[in-house]
Amino acid sequence: MLRFTALNEDSDDESEDEEIQESTKEAQEAELFDLYNKALVQQRAGKHDEAQQIYEELLKTTLLAKSSSRTSETKEGLVHPGVVLQYSALKNLAGLAAEKKDYNTAMEYYIKAVDIDCSDVSIWYKMGKLALQVTPTTISQTFI
Predict the structure, then answer these.
(1) How far apart are the C-alpha atoms of 119 and 27, rounded to whole Å?
(2) Interatomic CA distance for residues 110 and 116, integer angstroms
(3) Is-contact 131 139, C-beta < 8 A?
(4) CA distance linking residue 94 with residue 111, whole number of Å
(5) Residue 63 in contact with residue 72, Cβ under 8 Å?
(6) Where is the composition biased (Acidic residues) (predicted)?
(7) Are 116 and 71 in contact (CB under 8 A)?
């Protein structure tokens, strides 16, 4: 971002620092979106293991960890870009686990996604289908 100020004007260093932090945060978000798109390309190409690794790497980033705590506090849903990325990565990881018939892991990812946004009915439908695949003893051991 380009900013012009008078040379003899006293600048407010705090506001400049905030602007730099915001631009840095936006750059980090752009990098995370690129990483997410890379995972989508791998998933579409049938390289599910590579896609899974990228999604998991994406979820480990500090920006997404900060955004998830912000969502639970504000209850605004999928407004923050980091929350959208986290939610989408969790949904995709659940889908990959379900394709591998790892129903318990898929259910765990879906539950984490529902914690972020419980209004997506397609997730509830997929969770219901998975629940039919999981044995009752496994459910009680894993989720209760």
Answers:
(1) 29
(2) 10
(3) yes
(4) 9
(5) no
(6) 9-21
(7) yes
Encode pLDDT of 40-89 as tens digits: 999 999 999 999 999 999 988 866 655 554 344 445 556 778 888 999 99
- C-alpha distances (whole Å) from 27 to each of 5, 21, 97, 131 are 24, 10, 31, 40
Q: Which two tokens stand for residue 15?
A: 């506001």
pTM for the structure as a whole: 0.71
Rounded to 5°, angle at Cα 61 from 56 and 63: 135
Burial class (CB in 10 A: 0-12, 13-18, 19+), 90: buried
**What residue has token string 């003893």?**
137
Name the amino acid, one letter, at 69: S
- Helix locations, 7-135, DSSP H: 13-44, 48-59, 62-74, 81-99, 103-116, 121-133
For 130-142, the pLDDT digits (tens) are 988 876 655 555 5
